[in-house]
Each structure stands twice: as C-alpha cells, then as structure tokens.
Amino acid sequence: MPEVVSVVVSADDSVASHRPPVANFPAMTPLTILFAALLVVVGGVLAFRLHPFLVLITAAFVVAALTPVDPARPVGPGQRVAEGFGKTALDVGIVIAMASILGGCLSAAGGDKRIVAAIQRCVGERHTPLALLLAGFVLGIPMFAETVFYLLLPLARAAWERTGRGYLVCVLAIVAGATMTHSLVPPTPGPLFVAEALGVDIATMSGVGLVVGIIAALAGYAYARWADGRWPLEPSRSAAAAAETPASAAGAGSGPPLWASLLPILLPLVLISLESVSRSAADAIPAGVLAAVRILGDKNVALSLAAVVSIFLLASRAAGMPAVRGSIAEAVTEAGNIILVISAGGALGATLRAAGLGQVSPGLAAGAGLAVIPLAWLLTAVIRIAQGSVTVAMITAAGVMAPILLDGTPAFHPVYVAIAIGCGSKVGMWMNDSGFWVISRMSGMSEVQTLRSAAVMIAIEGTVGLIATLCLAVLWPLR
Fold first, then answer.
1. Distance from first CA to last CA of the chain, Å, rounded?
2. What are the angstrom distances between the C-alpha of 148 and each of 92, 140, 266, 438?
C-alpha cells in the first residue's frame, strides 16, 4: 500500500513563498502592457521604418514576456505568440491568398477595364468623375487601393484632355471610392482581419461595410467637387508620364464580357451571403440543399472558387500558361507578405487578450454603450496618424478592442465597432503614408495640394462613416 505523505504548512509561512515561479515576472497591469505594445508598434515604424511584420511580432513578444504565466496552462511567451499567429493564419490565410489571386488574374485578363467601361457607358461621359467614383468603389473590393489608383488615373487625365477641366475631381473620385471599400469590405486584408478578430461573419461585414462605404464615399465626392472648384488642377508633365497608359485600354472592345468580369467579384459575396441566410432559415431548406450551401458558402471555399474563375478568365483571353503562372506567382508572393503581417497582428491581439485587457474596465462594452464605437474609431485614427499604415492601424486597434467586446455584452452588433475601426483608419493621411506619395506623385500634386485635397477628403469620409455607423447602431442594432 503506497505511503501517504501529508504536508502541513504552518501559519507563519509566507504565502508568497508558495506562489508559482510566474510571480518573478514584473507585475504589470494590462494598461501598462498595452502601452508597451503600442510603443513598440509606433516607435518601431517611426524610428526604424521596420517592416510591419517585425514591428507587430516584436510587440507580441513584448506583451507575452511581460504577462504572468497562467498556472492552469503554463506555456511560455514563444508558444503564446505562435498560437496567436497560427490561429490568425488559419482564419484568414487561404482567404487572403485567394483574394490576391482573384484580383491579380482579373486585372491581367482586362476584367477591371471592362467594368470601368461599363460604368462609363451607364453614367455617360459627362459624368466621368462619378463613373470613376463607382469604378473605384467596385474595384476596391477585390483589388488593393493603390492598384485601383494606378489603373484609373489614365482615365482622369484623358477626361481632362477632352474637356480641359475637372482633373482634380476625377483624381479625388478615384481615391474616394477605392479607399472606402479597401477598409470596410472583405476580402481586402484590413476588414477581413477586423471581422475575424471581433467575431463578425463576412456577409454581415460586407453588407454593413457597403452601406457605410457608399455614404462616406458620396460625402468625399461632394468635397471633391467643392475642392475642384476652389483649387483647379492641371496634370504636370511627370503625371502625364506616370499615366501614359492609353485610356482606350478601358474601351468597350477590351477585356472579357461584363458578366464574366463581375462573376469573380459577385460569386463569393453571393455564396457567403446565402450561407449566412441559411443559418436562420435552416428548417425551411431541404437537407441536401442546406449542406451544399454551407459547403460552398464557407469563406475559404467561396474565395477559392472565385479565384479559379478568375484564373479561367485569364486563360480564356489566350494569355498563355506563362502569363497565367506569372500572374498567380506575383499574387501569391504579395499575399504571403500580407498574411505574415496580418498573422503577426493576430499574435499581438492574442497576447493582449491573455494579458487581461478585456478586464481593464469590467463591463466596458455594456456600460459605455455607443461610446465604444467612437473609442474604436479614435484609437485607430491615432495609430494611423502615428505610423501611416491603414492595415497596421486596423490590426492594432482590432487587437485592443476584441478582448473588450468579446468579454462584454454590447447592446449592438460588433460589426459596428469593426466598421468604426475601418472608418478611423481613413483619418490622418500625411507624409508618413506611402499612399500619400502615390497620390501626390502620380497625379502631379504638391505636398500642400495633396494635404488640402486628398487628405482632407479622406478624413471627411472617415468622419461621415463614423456618424453613419452610430446612426445604424441606434436604428438597426442587429441584436
């Protein structure tokens, strides 16, 4: 019979002497940990101009190292960071890769030009700025905002050459449309990550993002009209060289049919939306149909199907296999870079949650009410102003807000906080943002001209987007 050993602890023994080794870690509050993380993010980008991946992963390690180990699950800082990194890559890795392939192949096939030409025909040549706004808004869903700007800028110059006026409003219209969907509508990386971090399904994020994005883009377009009348602009010689792509490339005769060009964009939105609807109407749908909808409506499957459609679209244009392989390779390389950044942001968010950030103010999400929405907006805006990157600002803000929302019970759907983060990332574009220089140099504007036109317009969009988000949260809380 095994010997039973009893251990008696005397009353004068120090309780501290029986704490786990974790007590040797610095005693830091979650707010101090948050400050340290933000210091690493902002300081790293500003002082050293490091790659965002290195900055975010370093911040994650700092938070993990300063957080006491949970005795119930004693894992080291490295494993905590790796788990947060891996969980995020699991959630968004395939979607981002497939979305990148979709956008790259669609552009290489000329589908983007076909969409632009169709929009121009619908609104008429007299309304070219409005056509550019709509084209930027649509193409900003599968493509990056800077790529959309490169694509559409020649049309802005061509419109000025025909009429001799309206160049600034055309340039700003492109920016107004593309920047909103870039930050509000998945599958672009920023809104995709924010939706995953806050537990928002893609269909809901896309729907609300489109509504708020349209309102904000129209507000930006109104300012663009006013700015064009106050500060008329002519393209410089350098801008002409940058926009030397012939405008006729977007003509009616180029690119695949319109339906084929729109199919890769609409297919995942429809499939994911159907899957979302099927969850609330499962009893009224035959079992076989329900199973098929849920398989095809999975975000990974839906985006993969859309990517395959875009690949076939490019192959059907007689581009040849080398061109197809080249487009896919370029897209995958670009996606790999983004996945690393997004996953590092997920690791930072996971370590902040493990640090107990959600308990900084118990019941904040429920007690603060609507104040959580402008709080998320302001936090994102501050980070954007400090370090310049829209995506990094959204990732960092989502990492901070996720524990607060997930540990609380707000009176409205978390999608509104996700949208507020996207709108907050529009505030504060200036010289530390690569997009600022793309707009400035490609359009031929000086720094001052870019600040008073594009930067102010984007800030207006972000502010109007916040107001629209607050109104929707009150009128349509989705709870």
1. 61
2. 23, 7, 18, 12
Q: What is the C-alpha separation between 329 and 307, in angstroms, rounded?
A: 13
> Is 374 buried (19+), middle (13-18) or exposed (0-12) by CB count in 10 A?
middle
CB atoms within 10 A of CB 266: 12
**In this predicted model, what pLDDT tens digit does every residue of 398-425 receive, in sequence order?**
888 887 776 666 778 999 999 999 999 9
Is residue 429 within 8 A of residue 213, CB to CB? The reply is no
Percent of the chain with pLDDT over 90: 26
Distances (CA, A) of 293 to 245, 268, 287, 368: 42, 12, 10, 38
Q: Which residues 6+ apart lie within 8 Å of 282 measured at CB?
A: 290
pLDDT digits (tens, 9 = 90+) for 137-180: 998 888 878 888 888 888 888 888 777 788 999 999 999 999 99
Residue with structure tokens 């049919």?
A: 257
The reported pTM is 0.78
Ranges assigned E (strand) in 232-296: none
For tokens 């600022």, name the residue: 436
Amino acid code (one letter) for 106: L
- Find the length of the chain: 479
Rounded CA-CA distance 115/261 in Å is 7
Do 367 and 407 contact (CB within 8 A), yes or no? no
* Helices and strands in the chain: count of H runs, count of E runs: 21, 0
Specify the 3-state DSSP secondary structure of 99: helix
Q: Name the phi and psi angles at 173, rounded to 5.
A: -65, -40
Write the DSSP string, 378-433.
HHHHHHHHHH--HHHHHHHHHHHHHHHHHTS--SS-THHHHHHHHHHTTS---TT-
* φ, ψ for residue 362, nearest 5 deg: -55, 130
Given its phi and psi angles, is residue 255 left (phi above 0), alpha (psi -120 to 50 degrees) or beta?
left
Return d(Cα 406, Cα 290) in angstroms, integer. Answer: 29
**Residues sharing a CB contact under 8 Å with residue 219, sequence separation 6 or more, in sequence order:** 460, 461, 464
What is the Cα–Cα distance from 336 to 353, expressed in whole angstroms?
26
Contact status, residue 42 vs residue 58, Cβ threshold 8 Å: no
Residue 324's H or E segment, with its range, is: helix 321-354
Structure tokens at 283: 């009893």
